[in-house]
TrEMBL record:
Keyword NAD: no
First and last residue of the signal peptide: 1-24
Keyword Glycosyltransferase (UniProt): no
Domain DUF4136 stretches: 53-191
Organism: Aurantiacibacter sediminis
Keywords, ordered alphabetically: Signal
Listed name of the protein: DUF4136 domain-containing protein
Membrane-crossing segments per the record: none
Length: 200
């Protein structure tokens, strides 16, 4: 006899505590390119923490290393100091059950990150949440990079990448998320100034 979907869903929740599905958003990228980007993608570059960032933290170093790799692929040579250009890096990670309330994006057109959710339980008279345990945590990440010339008065290029993933996804760990976000941030470098794109 064929079981109804309601029976199967309830049985799964009661027997094993059906895990909530993992979620990973596209990486949303906004970039700004100066009117004189002649030296982008060449020469030497020093990667430094933006003011207010903790350059000594393991979290920062994971993202900074991912950015260094992307810059090398673009044609830069990474140096510890006195580069022709400086890449200023900031990283923000927010972990919580609810969507983070963001301040307006200051690079390009901007935009908000998407929300996530499951349709399970809609119209079904059982509380799946109490059977399957708490939902996975939501991890919102944002990295910002500004490339400056030696004079460090104006930015030759700016880029911001944001991503949301749940704690049960393949991108729960910073190392995986950093590589994905850095790759998206520099895809098609330098990109169209002021344009916001989504990279799957």
């Amino acid at each position: 006899m064929m079981k109804s979907p309601l029976f199967l869903l309830a049985a799964c929740a009661l027997a094993t505590g059906c895990a909530a599905p993992a979620y990973v958003s596209p990486v949303q990228v906004t970039r700004f390119v100066s009117e004189t980007p002649a030296f982008l993608g060449q020469g030497t570059v020093e990667v430094v923490a933006a003011p207010g960032s903790d350059a000594a933290s393991l979290e920062y170093e994971i993202y900074a290393n991912a950015i260094r790799l992307e810059l090398e692929e673009l044609g830069y040579r990474i140096v510890p100091d006195d580069g022709n250009q400086t890449a200023m890096v900031s990283v923000e990670v927010f972990v919580g059950a609810e969507e983070r309330r963001r301040s307006p994006v200051t690079v390009g057109a901007g935009g908000s990150t998407g929300t996530y959710g499951s349709g399970l339980g809609a119209g079904i008279g059982i509380n799946l949440g109490s059977l399957s345990g708490p939902p996975p945590e939501r991890i919102e990440r944002e990295i910002f990079v500004a490339l400056q010339g030696n004079e460090m008065t104006t930015n030759l290029w700016e880029g911001r990448a944001t991503m949301v993933a749940t704690s049960n996804s393949d991108f729960a760990e910073d190392a995986a998320a950093a590589a994905r976000m850095a790759d998206a941030l520099f895809a098609g470098f330098p990109g169209n100034s002021g344009e916001t794109i989504e990279v799957e």
